[in-house]
Amino acid sequence: MSYKIPLFDLNFDEEEENAVIQVIRSKWISSGPKTQALEEKFATMLGSEHALALTNCTVSLHLAMNLIGIKAGDEVICPSLTFVATCNAIRYVHGIPVFADIKSMTDLTIDPDDIERKITSRTKAIIVMHFGGFSCDMDRIMDLAQRHDLKVIEDACHGPLSEYGGRKLGTIGDIGCFSFFSNKNISTGEGGMLITNNQAYSDRARLLRSHGMTSMSYERSTGHSTSYDVVDLGFNYRMDDIRAAIGLVQLDKLRADISIRAAIRNQYLDLLKNVDGITVPFAASETIASNYIFTIVLKDATVDKRDKVRGQLAEAGIQTSVHYPAVHRFSVFREFSSDLPLTDYVTDSLITLPMYSRLSAEDIQYIVLNLKRVLNV
Ligand SMILES: *Cc1c(COP(=O)(O)O)cnc(C)c1O
């Protein structure tokens, strides 16, 4: 089905096309100078000491679990209202995901009070996810982490250049993980980044992403190295220069893209101001946010009502989504399930509306008009 208004549209033009052509013609298409340039640019833009480009964010989260030393039976506190990859990473290293609830219907980030209740002698880390690019309560979370000697991993997939108290998301905890999947703020098809200010983490991540080898093929091809040793059990989590070249163009566009998204969000907020029957999460937030997605939560709803509203919007040609089906309800996570009343409510009553920088004022009016019609308000 093709929608009149899709959920997301790529912010691509000839610049991305030309960047790819240039890399292909250079004949070095795997990890090389473009990848290194992307890492340097990303680190500079975020104010992080180290950045490592990777195949996607899922492997960034996996490396993060490895770097902080999560082992079988270690507990890691995480949200359930997130993409499943956040929690899968804990399982890759046989850790135990301990789900914490969200704060409220208007703040969909992990609740520090619930984190505190769920800390045990086995807890080793907290993974936070900055929903839609709106920050978790990092002051309280970092304070809890310090008092209980826990590591903090930021799944910052939604929040490149989003801020918290003047600091960029992903730079506050021990490690920050980003995704460049097609529908993210920065799109390279597949792609991801790991950032950290910890030199030892960065050094080890560099080894682990390339089979634990002490030198990379680009270094050898350019004569900087002739042989290598394998010193750790690594993976192949490298980004290639074709994607990195697209990423460099996307980074150049990021600030402008984000400011357009902020304007779109303001338009939505304005038009939805007097609509009964919904709440708009983070409506009162005034910090710089990436606005990766725009979500609403239906009041007094059930999953049937929500799905009916989505169905009627689809009939009007408007694509919507649900961020997210709660992870603790998935079959493979059910054994780790716990009581998460707010997450349960929101996962059944949330609707993600279209958000991308090419969304026009008329599109937004059309979406809100139809939403009001469908809600009968
Ligand atoms: C997209 C996303 C991921 C996974 O990223 P990939 O690059 O597709 O592996 C993980 N967590 C969150 C919150 C995401 O939005």
What does this structure look like?
The chain has 377 residues and is α/β, with parallel strands linked by helices. The protein folds into two domains: 14-250, Type I PLP-dependent aspartate aminotransferase-like (Major domain) (Aspartate Aminotransferase, domain 2, 3-Layer(aba) Sandwich); 254-375, Aspartate Aminotransferase, domain 1. Helices cover 39% and strands 14% of the residues. The strands form three sheets. Strands 1-9-8-5-4-2-3 form a seven-stranded mixed beta sheet, with helices on both faces. A three-stranded antiparallel beta sheet has the order 10-11-12. Helix 2 packs parallel to helix 9 and helix 9 (241-272) packs across helix 12 (361-375). It is globular and about 70 Å long. It starts with 13 loop residues before the first helix and ends with a helix. The relative contact order is 0.18. Bound molecules: pyridoxal-5'-phosphate. Pyridoxal-5'-phosphate binds next to helix 3 and helix 4.
Distance between the termini: 28 Å
The largest sheet, given as strand count, sense and whether it forms a barrel, is: 7 strands, mixed
Put simply, the count of helices is 12
CATH class of the largest domain: Alpha Beta
The whole-number mean of residue pLDDT values reads 97
Count of all domains: 2
Over all CA atoms, what is the radius of gyration? Answer: 21 Å
Kindly name the structural category.
alpha/beta
Q: What percent of residues are in strands?
A: 5-15%
